[in-house]
Every structure is written in C-alpha cells, then in structure tokens.
C-alpha cells in the first residue's frame, strides 16, 4: 500500500503563509552634536525653563553661603576689616586677601555641580553629558589640551607684558598664599564658568531648535553675550574681548564634542595672567579694570584664533568623538538590530 497524503504533499519549509515578526530596527537616533544633545525623545519645550529654575535656586543658596563666609572672613581678618566696599576699588582691594580670592573662585566653581544637576533634574539626562558627548570628562584629552593651551597663553601673555613695559617685581603682601590659591582653584573657577555657560546654558538653548547648526549658533551667541555681561561694568573693547572668548569656547565645544578644550584654554589663560599679576602687585587693579585698548583686543583675538587652530588639529589627530547617537525606544513589537561580530 503506497503512502499518500489525503490532501496532497506538504509544502517544503519556507513556502506558504508565514508568521513573520516585525523587521529589526536600529535603536539609535540621528547623531547629534554637543549643543543638540538634550533634544531627544524626552525633550519638551518647558524643560530648559525647569533647568533654569534649578540653576537659579542653586545660585541663590550659593550666594547666601558666600555672603556668610565673606562676613566671617572680614570679621576675623583685621587686614581687610577697614576696607570700604562702597568706594571705587574696594572690592578689588578685598580680593587681594588670599581667603577672599579663594572664596570667590570656589563660588564660581559651583557652576560645575549646578550644571550637572540642572541637566539631570530639568532634562532627565545623566550629568556626565554636560562634560562631553560620551557622557564623561575625557581626562586624557583635557591633559593634552591643557599643555597646548599653556604654550599659546604663555607666549601671548608674555608678549603683552613685554609690550607693556616688562615685569616689575612688586609682589602682593600675601603673594605665596595667593599664588597657591590661583594654582589650586583657578582651574575650578574656569571650569565652573564653562560648565555653566558653554555647558548647561548652551545645551538648554540648543534643545529648542530642530536644526543643530541653528541651535549651536544661537546658543553660542547667547552664552557669549551673557558671559561678557556677567563680568560687570566694562568698556566696549573689554566687552568685545570677553564676547570673543565666549565665541571661541563655543567653537571648541562644537569641534571637539565636549568642554575639555574650552576649560583648558580658560583655565590656563586665567592662571598665566593671575600669577604675574600677583607678583607685580596689580591684583586689585586687575579686578577693577573696565577698559581695554583696541590693540590688546586685536592681539587677544589673534591668540585665541591660534589656540582654536591648534586645539582643533589635536582633536582631529586623536579622532575625538564629536557627536552622540542617542538611544531611542524601538517601535512596539520590533526587534532590535543586532550588531555583527567584530572581525579582529
């Protein structure tokens, strides 16, 4: 008896109707530069405003603590107890006391944790993404950028001192402690300003724009303007000088994908300026300066441009990651795309 199928032979595998799962999808969204990082699936128009409230609340607390600390310092230090803060130059004279200089730097360094807190509480991102597109501070790159920035700033500041008549030795009364405060806390002060202006503020403003280039341009101009205004009363060329630095720092952030190069350039610039200023007895005058000759502005722009070129080339040689590909939830029922094994 021959074996037959009453309804015909079965179809071979692969033919006929199949129950297919949805095709695999890539879980990664479009690559976004630093200033567009916060414009992801969680972005809402109100999130930058929430993060602003976090920053303002933190600044209010920090300002209160600073006021109390300054009050205690003035009470305990007879050398500054007679300083009249209501007169012109009074604030600059107060900051020649090492502890006052230290407190001011630590107050500005509060920008580091505040920026991370604002991005986390306001935007739902890990604080590490304020540092760079990889979600952390790239310490190796920070070291390389610092060495390069040191060379550029030492040459430019050294030339400016020579053109101004040279180095006249007349150290501040507390020169040793002041220089120690400069070396230990000025990098934190510079980082605090960069995390606040080029970090949180630029990312928050950039998140409002769908086109990353437009967001970067608006964020760069806005943060540079506020950065210059935050330095107080100043003449047009000094304002332009600080605005130009803000623009340069934003360019470095865009080109390198993080704050490291901007922090390095800012910190080295301030350190290289403050150390000789302390040794020549001009610290109070430096804090009260409101004018800058146009020639000095041009020289600063040239030096900053050189720094941008050098740091950008170093970043390209190190092949730094400049954008971040954000993870996005796949459509319901879809399987994630599996990466092929790497060939080694």
TrEMBL record:
The keyword Membrane applies. InterPro entries: Rce1/LyrA-like_dom. Coiled coil: none annotated. Residues 177-272 form the CAAX prenyl protease 2/Lysostaphin resistance protein A-like domain. This is CAAX prenyl protease 2/Lysostaphin resistance protein A-like domain-containing protein. One of its GO terms (biological process) is CAAX-box protein maturation. Residues 325-344 are annotated as: Disordered.
């Amino acid at each position: 008896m021959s074996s037959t199928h009453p309804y015909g032979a079965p179809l071979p595998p692969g033919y006929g109707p199949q129950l297919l799962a949805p095709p695999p999808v890539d879980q990664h969204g479009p690559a976004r530069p630093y200033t567009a990082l916060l414009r992801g699936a969680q972005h809402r128009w109100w999130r930058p405003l929430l993060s602003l409230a976090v920053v303002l609340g933190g600044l209010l607390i920090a300002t209160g603590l600073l006021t109390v600390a300054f009050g205690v310092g003035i009470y305990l230090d007879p050398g500054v107890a007679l300083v009249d803060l209501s007169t012109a130059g009074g604030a600059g004279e107060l900051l020649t006391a090492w502890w006052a200089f230290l407190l001011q730097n630590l107050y500005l360094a509060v920008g580091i944790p505040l920026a991370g807190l604002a991005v986390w509480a306001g935007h739902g991102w890990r604080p590490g993404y304020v540092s760079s597109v990889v979600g952390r501070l790239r310490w190796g790159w920070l070291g390389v950028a610092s060495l390069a920035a040191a060379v550029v700033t030492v040459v430019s500041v050294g030339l400016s001192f020579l053109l101004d008549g040279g180095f006249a030795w007349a150290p501040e009364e507390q020169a040793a402690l002041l220089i120690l405060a400069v070396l230990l806390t000025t990098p934190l002060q510079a980082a605090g300003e960069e995390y606040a202006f080029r970090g949180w503020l630029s990312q928050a403003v950039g998140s409002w724009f769908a086109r990353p280039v437009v967001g970067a341009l608006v964020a760069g101009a806005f943060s540079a303007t506020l950065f210059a205004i935050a330095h107080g009363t100043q003449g047009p060329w000094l304002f332009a000088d600080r605005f130009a630095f803000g623009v340069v720092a934003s360019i470095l952030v865009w080109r390198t994908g993080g704050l490291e190069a901007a922090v390095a350039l800012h910190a080295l610039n301030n350190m290289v300026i403050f150390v000789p200023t302390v040794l020549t007895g001009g610290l109070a005058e430096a804090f009260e300066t409101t004018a800058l000759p146009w020639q000095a502005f041009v020289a600063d722009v040239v030096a900053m441009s050189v720094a941008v070129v050098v740091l950008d080339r170093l970043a390209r040689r190190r092949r730094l990651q400049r954008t971040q590909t954000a993870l996005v939830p796949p459509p319901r029922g879809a399987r994630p795309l599996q990466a092929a094994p790497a060939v080694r």
